[in-house]
Design goal:
Elements (H helix, E strand, L loop, with lengths): L48 E2 L51 H4 L30 H4 L17 H5 L7 H11 L4 H14 L6 H6 L4 E6 L4 H11 L2 E3 L9 E4 L12 E2 L5 H4 L2 H14 L10 E4 L3 H14 L7 E5 L9 E3 L10 H4 L2 E5 L5 E3 L2 E13 L4 E5 L3 E4 L15 H4 L3 H4 L16 E3 H10 L4 H30 L8 E2 L1 E9 L5 E7 L7 E7 L2 E6 L1 H18 L1 H12 L27 E5 L3 H4 L4 H12 L10 H10 L9 H17 L14 H15 L5 H27 L5 H8 L12 H24 L1
Parallel strand pairs: 1-10, 2-3, 2-4, 4-5, 5-15
Antiparallel strand pairs: 6-9, 7-8, 7-9, 10-11, 11-12, 11-13, 11-16, 12-20, 13-14, 16-17, 18-19
Helix pairs in contact: 5-7, 7-16, 15-19, 19-22, 19-23, 20-21, 21-22, 22-23, 23-24, 23-25, 24-25
Bound molecules: adenosine-5'-diphosphate (ADP).
Adenosine-5'-diphosphate (ADP) binds next to strand 7, strand 9, strand 16 and strand 17.
Length: about 800
C-alpha cells in the first residue's frame, strides 16, 4: 500500500477537508523562546527550528510501516489504496541540500507590523484563560522538566456545554467512550441535561412564545453530528429530513447546489469549491502578487502545470544561475486533490512526472517550505476556521482557536533520501493516521492533533510574540479572501441574479497555514469544505472498528458551527430591526424586549468567532482593485446567469468607457478579446462554463491590466490599474447620469454634468438622489483623470 499522497495521483476528490495530526506527547521544550531557536539547517543541521528539546518523546518505531494500527481516522476514510511505503522519490538532483540559500528566502513574508495598527486587538485564544483550557506546558517556567502528558481537565466551555463538565477527567473519557460518536442521541441528551441546568432557561410557555430558528440538516453529511450538538445548545429546531415549508437556514455538506433553495440562508457560496481549487487559488494569488508583491508574499511561489512548465523550468534555471547555493525543493500537488492525494516532492524541474497524471490532471508546483517551525521535532500545520459571513458588504470572522495537525516522524530538511517520507513532510491527518506513531489524545495539548491555542500557549511561554503572529495570520486571511472575492462575485450573480429569489449565503472555510521557523505564516491552501467531523474510527480488535469521539475536534468545531449560527441568526436580525423601528420597546438599549423570554445566548460562552473585516477594512481596502475590475466585468456580462463575457459585451465596455482611440481601434479591441479569450479557454480550466465560448473573469482581468499598462506606461502596475479603474468608473458614472437625466425628460445633460461637478446647486439639474450623489463624488476625480488621461494615453 502506498499513501495516496505520494505518487499515485489516484483520483477521487473528497469533499471533506483534511486534517493532520501527529504526535508525540507534549514534553517540555529545552529551548524556550524564539530567540533561542536554532536556525535549522544553518551550516550543519538538517532539522528545522525546534520548540522542544530532546526530551520530546520520540514516536516509537519511526518507520512508515504500521499503517492502520492507529485506527482509521474519520477524515482518513477516503483515499483508497494506502500504502505504508511513503512517498516515491521523484528527485534525482544532488544530495545534501543546504537550505540556507534561497530555498526558503524565495518566500519572503512581509512581517507586517499590524499590531501597531490595532489588529492585534484580537486576543489569541491561547491567551484567554476564561475561554481556553490552559496548556500545562505554558504554566511551567522555561527550562522546567518535562511534564506528564495528561492535560488539566479544566472546564472548557464546549465540555461544560456537553454536560461533561461535572465529571472528573477519566470518568469523562469513559463517558465519552460509552456514548460513542455514532450515537446521535447521546450528545443531545447531554445537551438537554445541560439545558436543564443552564441559567436563564425558558419555561415551556416562554419557548412557545418565541418560535425557534428552523434549520434543514438533511444535507449536512459529515458535519451533521457537530451541527446537531450546536443546534441543541442554541435550542433551535432541526429538520433532519428536510421540511415542506421553507427553513430559515439550510446546512449543506458539500456545495451550494446540494439542494434547490429560494429563500433563507445557506452555508455555502456558489462557486466556492471551484474558486479555492489549487490552480484557481494560485492564479488569484499571482494576480494579487503582481499588483502588490510585498503584501502577497505569504503564498509560496507557484507554477501551473502543464501550461507553465517551460516557465517553471526557465525561472528556476535563472534563479539557480543567479544564486548557485540555492538548492530548492518543490512540491507538486494535483489540482482538485485533497488529503495529500497525488502529492510528491522534487528537487529539480526535470523530476516532474510528465507521463500519465500531469497530462490528464493539471497540478500546481510550488516552492517547498524547507524550514518550518517544529514542535517536538515534528512538522505541523494549522487549520484555522474562517467565516465568510457576507460577500457584499464583505464580512469576515476568524475563529479564535483551530487545530494543529502533526506529522508522525521527526522532520528533516528534504534530501533525496527522505523526499518520499510522507509522515515526515506532509501534515495531512488522513495520511498520518496510518502511521504507527499517530497518537490519539483526549487532551488539547498533546497527541497528533491538538488545538492551535495549545501551540500558542507554548510559544508564548517561550517568549514568542504571539500577538504579532495573530496579527500576521489575520492579515493573511483578509488578503486571501480579498483575492477570492472577485471570482466569487461572478459566481454569485450567476447563481443568484439580482431580482431573482434566492437564499443569502455564508460559509465556513478551512485555512491551512504553515508556520516558518521565524513564525511567519504561509498559506498552503483554503478548503471550501473543511472537515467538521468530531469523531474518529478506532480499531478495537483486528478488523473491528468503532467511532469514538474526538474531544479536540469537538471542542473546536462545535464552537465554530454554533457561533456561526449565532452570527447569522435571522431572529437576532429581526429583533434588531424591530428595536430600530421602535426604540421605546427596548429601554436601555437592551437587545431583548423586557417581556421577552431570556435568550439562550445567556447560557452560551462568548463568541469564538471574531470579526476582522470590516473591522480592519481601512488597512486592506486599497487591495480591492480586482474586486472593482470584477464589478465592471459583471456590469457588462449582459445575459443573466452567465459567467463569461461575449465579444459584444467587451466592445460595449470599451465604448462606454471611451477606451478606444486612434491608437487603439475597435479592430485592435477585437483582436485583444480574441487572443486572450482563446488562450484562457484552451487552458482547460475547471470552470462552471469551461466548454462555452466567451471571456472568463481572469481573462478580462488580464485584458484590463493590458489596457492599463498601455495607457499609463510609466506607473507601477497597481497604479496603472487604479488609474484605469477610476477613469472607467467615472466615465460610466457620467454616462449613467446622462441616461438618468434624459430618461427623466430633463434634457439638460450640461446641467446634469454641472450637478455632477462641484456644487449641486438648486435648479432642475438634479435628477435622482443616489446617482447624482455618485456623480458628485466622482466627477472630482473625473476632471483630474481627464487631465491624466490626456497626458497618459
Ligand atoms: P491537500 O489538499 O492534498 O492536503 P495541501 O496543499 O494541503 O494539499 O498539501 C498537503 C500537505 O503538504 C500540507 O498539509 C503540508 O504539510 C504539505 N505542504 C503543502 N505545500 C507545502 C509547501 N509549499 N511547503 C511545505 N509543505 C507543504
Amino acid at each position: 500500500m502506498e499513501p495516496a499522497g505520494l505518487g499515485t495521483g489516484a483520483e477521487g476528490i473528497q469533499p471533506a477537508g483534511t486534517e493532520t495530526g501527529t504526535g508525540t506527547e507534549g514534553k517540555q521544550p529545552a529551548r524556550m523562546g524564539t530567540e533561542t531557536m536554532e536556525p535549522a539547517g544553518l551550516g550543519t543541521g538538517t532539522e528545522g527550528t525546534e520548540l522542544t528539546g530532546t526530551e520530546g518523546i520520540q514516536p516509537a518505531g519511526m518507520g512508515t510501516e504500521g499503517i492502520g494500527q492507529a485506527g482509521m481516522g474519520a477524515e482518513a476514510a477516503e483515499p483508497a489504496g494506502l500504502e505504508p511505503a511513503g512517498l516515491r522519490t521523484a528527485g534525482t538532483g544532488t544530495e545534501g541540500i543546504e537550505s540556507a540559500g534561497k530555498g526558503t528566502e524565495g518566500i519572503e513574508l512581509a512581517g507586517l507590523e499590524l499590531a501597531g495598527l490595532g489588529i492585534a486587538e484580537m486576543e489569541p485564544a491561547g491567551l484567554e484563560p476564561a475561554e481556553m483550557e490552559p496548556a500545562r506546558e505554558a504554566e511551567e517556567p522555561p527550562g522546567s522538566p518535562a511534564l506528564p502528558a495528561e492535560a488539566p481537565q479544566g472546564g472548557p466551555p464546549a465540555a461544560a456545554l456537553s454536560g461533561e463538565g461535572a465529571l472528573p477527567g477519566r470518568e469523562r473519557e469513559r463517558e465519552r467512550g460509552r456514548r460513542g460518536a455514532g450515537a446521535p442521541g447521546s450528545a443531545g441528551r447531554a445537551a438537554r441535561g445541560r439545558a436543564r441546568r443552564a441559567p436563564g432557561r425558558r419555561s415551556g410557555t416562554e419557548s412557545a412564545r418565541r418560535p425557534g430558528v428552523t434549520v434543514d440538516s438533511s444535507k449536512a453529511k459529515t458535519s451533521l453530528e457537530a451541527l446537531k450538538i450546536s443546534l441543541r445548545q442554541l435550542r433551535w429546531k432541526e429538520f433532519p429530513f428536510g421540511r415542506r415549508l421553507p427553513c430559515d437556514i439550510y446546512w449543506h455538506g458539500v456545495s451550494f447546489h446540494d439542494s434547490n433553495i429560494f429563500s433563507g440562508q445557506v452555508n455555502k457560496f456558489p462557486g466556492m469549491t471551484e474558486t479555492v481549487r489549487k490552480i484557481t487559488l494560485s492564479r488569484a494569488m499571482r494576480t494579487m502578487r503582481d499588483l502588490f508583491p510585498l503584501e502577497y508574499n505569504f503564498y509560496p511561489r507557484s507554477w501551473i502545470l502543464p501550461e507553465e512548465l517551460p516557465l517553471f523550468v526557465a525561472e528556476v534555471r535563472t534563479m539557480k544561475d543567479s544564486n548557485p547555493s540555492w538548492k530548492p525543493t518543490f512540491i507538486v500537488k494535483p489540482d482538485g486533490g485533497c488529503q495529500g492525494d497525488g502529492i510528491y516532492l522534487i528537487k529539480d524541474p526535470s523530476d516532474i512526472r510528465l507521463t500519465g497524471s500531469i497530462q490528464s490532471r493539471p497540478a500546481v508546483v510550488q516552492e517547498y517550505i524547507c524550514k518550518p517551525l517544529l514542535v517536538d521535532k515534528l512538522k505541523f500545520d494549522i487549520r484555522l476556521y474562517v467565516l465568510l459571513k457576507s460577500l457584499e458588504p464583505l464580512e469576515i470572522y476568524i475563529a479564535k482557536d483551530g487545530l494543529s495537525r502533526f506529522c508522525t516522524e521527526p522532520y528533516q530538511e528534504p534530501t533525496l533520501k527522505n523526499l518520499h517520507q510522507v509522515f515526515m513532510h506532509l501534515t495531512n491527518y488522513s495520511l498520518n493516521i496510518h502511521s504507527g506513531n499517530f497518537i490519539h489524545s483526549a487532551s488539547a495539548n498533546t497527541g497528533s492533533k491538538r488545538t492551535f491555542s495549545s501551540i500558542l500557549c507554548r510559544l508564548s511561554s517561550r517568549g514568542a510574540d504571539v500577538k504579532k503572529l495573530w496579527s500576521d495570520i489575520i492579515s493573511l486571511v483578509i488578503k486571501t479572501i480579498i483575492a477570492l472575492t472577485p471570482e466569487l462575485k461572478v459566481y454569485y450573480q450567476s447563481d443568484i441574479p439580482a431580482g431573482k429569489p434566492g437564499p443569502t449565503c455564508f460559509q465556513i472555510l478551512g485555512f491551512d497555514i504553515l508556520l516558518m521557523k521565524d513564525l511567519k505564516p504561509v498559506l498552503l491552501e483554503v478548503n471550501a469544505n473543511p472537515s467538521m467531523r468530531i469523531e474518529h474510527e478506532q480499531e478495537l480488535s483486528p478488523g473491528v472498528f468503532e467511532n469514538v469521539p474526538s474531544p479536540v475536534d469537538e471542542k473546536v468545531k462545535v464552537a465554530v458551527i454554533r457561533d456561526t449560527l449565532r452570527l447569522v441568526d435571522p431572529q437576532k436580525k429581526k429583533r434588531k430591526d424591530t428595536q430600530c423601528q421602535s426604540p421605546e420597546q427596548a429601554p436601555g438599549g437592551s437587545e431583548e424586549p423586557p417581556d421577552a423570554a431570556p435568550s439562550p445566548e445567556a447560557a452560551l460562552p462568548s463568541l469564538c468567532l471574531k470579526q476582522v473585516f470590516p473591522k480592519y477594512a481601512r488597512h486592506f481596502s486599497y487591495l480591492r482593485l480586482v474586486d472593482r475590475v470584477a464589478a465592471l466585468f459583471i456590469r457588462f456580462l449582459g445575459v443573466k446567469g452567465t459567467t463569461k463575457l461575449g465579444p459584444t459585451g467587451f466592445r460595449t465596455f470599451i465604448r462606454n468607457c471611451k477606451l478606444s482611440n486612434s491608437n487603439f481601434s475597435m479592430a485592435a479591441v477585437d483582436i485583444l478579446y480574441i487572443d486572450i479569450t482563446r488562450r484562457w479557454n484552451s487552458m482547460g480550466i475547471d470552470h462552471k462554463e469551461s466548454g462555452s465560448p466567451g471571456m472568463c473573469l481572469q481573462a478580462f482581468v488580464e485584458a484590463f491590466f493590458c489596457l492599463a499598462q498601455k495607457k499609463y506606461k510609466a506607473l507601477p502596475l497597481h497604479k496603472q490599474v487604479l488609474s484605469l479603474l477610476e477613469l472607467c468608473e467615472c466615465r460610466l458614472a457620467a454616462l449613467h447620469g446622462k441616461r438618468l437625466v434624459w430618461g427623466c425628460g430633463l434634457a439638460q445633460p450640461r446641467g446634469a454634468l454641472r450637478a455632477a461637478g462641484t456644487a449641486p446647486g438648486p435648479g432642475p439639474a438634479r435628477p435622482h438622489g443616489p446617482p447624482v450623489l455618485r456623480l458628485q463624488k466622482s466627477s472630482h476625480q473625473l476632471r483630474a483623470l481627464m487631465c491624466r488621461d490626456r497626458t497618459g494615453s
